[in-house]
Amino acid sequence: AETLQIVVSSSPVPSHANDKESYLWRSHTGGFGTTLESRGSCKRNQGIENQKKSERKVSSAVSNMSRRYDSRTTIFSPEGRLYQVEYAMEAIGNAGSAIGILAKDGVVLIGEKKVTSKLLQTSTSAEKMYKIDDHVACAVAGIMSDANILINTARVQAQRYTFMYQEPMPVEQLVQSLCDTKQGYTQFGGLRPFGVSFLFAGWDKNHGFQLYMSDPSGNYGGWKAAAVGANNQAAQSILKQDYKDDASREEVVELALKVLSKTMDSTSLTSEKLELAEVFLTPSGSVQYHVHSPESLTKLLVKHGVTQPAAETS
Amino acid sequence: MSIFEYNGSAVVAMGGKNCFAIASDRRLGVQLQTIATDFQRISKIHDRVFIGLSGLATDVQTLYQRLVFRHKLYQLREERDMKPETFASLVSAILYEKRFGPYLCQPVIAGLGEDDKPFICTMDSIGAKELAKDFVVSGTASESLYGACEAMYKPDMEAEELFETISQALLSSVDRDCLSGWGGHVYVVTPTEIKERILKGRMD
């Protein structure tokens, strides 16, 4: 509700123009402005300011103006951005990182567990890696509760496809179908987007082993190596240099551990802070999703020499 | 002619000592005409739970596919296999959902529960569960099967003897039923292995 306060006095109306004091008036959208405006004048000023802006060609980050465009998820900003989607990606940038790398004979997913405490009841269920179907698994970065909803959706979608066609859902179609769900939250309903990025790893008979990355906007891409979550840019650039095509699963596991040890914030790498999973084919031809046990992880860490504190990176 | 007798079927399950056996015939017919002699009525849900479905063949297949759907999701969410008792409750619930337009099949569920105790049960087409300790039957040959099993069954049989008993009971019962037969399909499940065998009886 808006209240109108009428003051009868002889003192001048405070305004930003006064040297001694500066005031900011609350505008009807909840932001602040330098003049007291009614809704009508607000709209007029919007038009004028837009014109001025295009003339000045100012590329601002989150300016005062943008406050008008981030309260609703489903509208574009004047610069053509969807702020809510970008804020969602910001949220993911603070979450534990996850890296996925394609090998010649499998896909490796590795995740950094952000929540480690002695008090945490370590159940068998994972924090970063989830199985979607027998032939597809995913790693998660972002808000866990959002991730749970999407993982459940993905599982049901995969089963519905199998029920309809009596064969496993192709990996790209599963990713696409989940991304269509995510996209819906950026275009209608007035609900916020999901604050999760996924790395999907899977196998199907048409395209073999595949790795896909998807983000809150509903965009997805197929990758040879990808990173999401905290420090993902640093991880991505290291991967760009060190990734080799047609590496074996062991070489890829080594690469993944090395990259994570360089980009992780924490001072030392132990098996309780990591989750490592591999998707590969058994000799009998069925797809296997295997999560490494803490003992096996410790052995791998020692083998590849990454248990020492992470080296200082620039 | 009842719709349950359209395709013809015979399914039986027996409990033994820390094992169970489930068997079915292999005929698929369209009333009097036989159109397949290798029809699968028994399917594995996981290593310790099997379901055999008798009745209309299309519902047998569709109901099985729906159960796989539900079980897969259960496995993913709970990260474990379903117990046979739980699975039986699931089947019963799914059948009752279609109370006024039912799936025209009668399931026979057999599994190994906790401590490797065998669990067998059957239900009607709208989900009325019937648990038994000894044997359960269903299909067009069910009356003959009741008689044969009652005569041949003894409690606490080991896997090999159980196989013999269930095979004899099945073959002699389907011989008295024109709509089922053309051989048998027997699974004998112990905590360590699953043995699948095909029987050759009167091929008619």
TrEMBL record, chain A:
Membrane-traversing stretches: none
Superkingdom assignment: Eukaryota
Oligomer and partners: Component of the 20S core complex of the 26S proteasome. The 26S proteasome is composed of a core protease (CP), known as the 20S proteasome, capped at one or both ends by the 19S regulatory particle (RP/PA700). The 20S proteasome core is composed of 28 subunits that are arranged in four stacked rings, resulting in a barrel-shaped structure. The two end rings are each formed by seven alpha subunits, and the two central rings are each formed by seven beta subunits. The catalytic chamber with the active sites is on the inside of the barrel.
Family as reported in the entry's similarity comment: Belongs to the peptidase T1A family.
InterPro entries: Ntn_hydrolases_N (IPR029055), Proteasome_alpha (IPR050115), Proteasome_alpha-type (IPR023332), Proteasome_asu_N (IPR000426), Proteasome_bsu_CS (IPR016050), Proteasome_sua/b (IPR001353)
Protein's name according to its UniProt entry: Proteasome alpha-type subunits domain-containing protein
Subcellular location per the Swiss-Prot or TrEMBL entry: Nucleus
Chief site of localization: nucleus
Automatic annotation (TrEMBL), chain B:
Record's subcellular location: Cytoplasm; Nucleus
Cross-referenced InterPro entries: Ntn_hydrolases_N, Proteasome_beta_3, Proteasome_bsu_CS, Proteasome_sua/b, Proteasome_suB-type
Record SUPFAM superfamilies: N-terminal nucleophile aminohydrolases (Ntn hydrolases)
Example of a GO biological process term: proteasome-mediated ubiquitin-dependent protein catabolic process
Gene Ontology CC annotations of this record: cytosol; nucleus; proteasome core complex, beta-subunit complex
Keyword set, alphabetical order: Cytoplasm, Nucleus, Proteasome
Chain's role: Non-catalytic component of the proteasome, a multicatalytic proteinase complex which is characterized by its ability to cleave peptides with Arg, Phe, Tyr, Leu, and Glu adjacent to the leaving group at neutral or slightly basic pH. The proteasome has an ATP-dependent proteolytic activity.
Family note: Belongs to the peptidase T1B family.
Assembly, per entry: Component of the proteasome complex. Component of the 20S core complex of the 26S proteasome. The 26S proteasome is composed of a core protease (CP), known as the 20S proteasome, capped at one or both ends by the 19S regulatory particle (RP/PA700). The 20S proteasome core is composed of 28 subunits that are arranged in four stacked rings, resulting in a barrel-shaped structure. The two end rings are each formed by seven alpha subunits, and the two central rings are each formed by seven beta subunits. The catalytic chamber with the active sites is on the inside of the barrel.
Protein name: Proteasome subunit beta
Organism: Brassica campestris (Field mustard)
Lineage per the UniProt record: Eukaryota, Viridiplantae, Streptophyta, Embryophyta, Tracheophyta
